[in-house]
Amino acid sequence: MTVRRPLGCLTRRSVLAGLALSVSPPVRAAGGLTVLAAASLKPALDEIATTWAEPVALSYGGSGTIARQAAAGAPADLVLLAASDWMEWLVGQGVVQGTARSVASNRLVMAGPAGAGQIELTSDGVEGRLGTEGRFAMGDPLSVPAGRYGQQALETLGLWTALRPRAILAENVRAALAYVARGDVTLGLVYASDVVGTGAVDVARIPARAHQPIVYPGAVLAGAAPSARALLDHIAQATDVFARHGFHL
């Protein structure tokens, strides 16, 4: 299993400016709307889409990947990200109509496989659970908002320096959670919503003070269908669905 480590010499701004990578564009829904969305939104957004009157095609990925897709002119109507800075970057690219709005928020947890017990968020608690060979999974801080929030939290808690060499950095937070659910890693730093219904368990809640607020901004893209704004409003108003899937509202 390959371990990828963040490039500490790169600033967040330079990463955003330099990510002109080729990506696979989504296919626009026939007679409906297409939404690019952060992977962590999938369970809730899949359900919300079934309550919309016209077909909705949903394309999920890491926020950095889908932001680049949108900036490159992907055939989509809405974009829903897991971080405000990626949305600000998109606005700066001139591909967003009007203003963005928040549709949900979340919190971070340390997750473990089914049956795992609670741990303390201290060096002894986390490294004691990992043991000498254990690894933990998280999103890549360079492109995945959950990874960036996670790095901020671990730095605040004084754990990042020791844990960074043991991190498996995933392309999105749902992939990080999959490592945990399968038992491939001992711990995973993921969103609280990711744990719901997966078989993984929440073994420690990360204090909200340890990182920037986790919000999901959504926006209508240039060239979108006329009903796109109404769909964005519909998603933002589905608070009961988001709450049922573990989002923090």
From TrEMBL:
It holds the Pfam family SBP_bac_11. Gene3D superfamilies: Periplasmic binding protein-like II. Keywords: Metal-binding, Signal. It comes from the Bacteria. Residues 1-29 form the signal peptide. InterPro entries: ModA, ModA/WtpA. PANTHER family: MOLYBDATE-BINDING PERIPLASMIC PROTEIN, SULFATE-BINDING PROTEIN. Belongs to the bacterial solute-binding protein ModA family. This is Molybdate ABC transporter substrate-binding protein. It comes from Jannaschia pagri. The gene is modA.
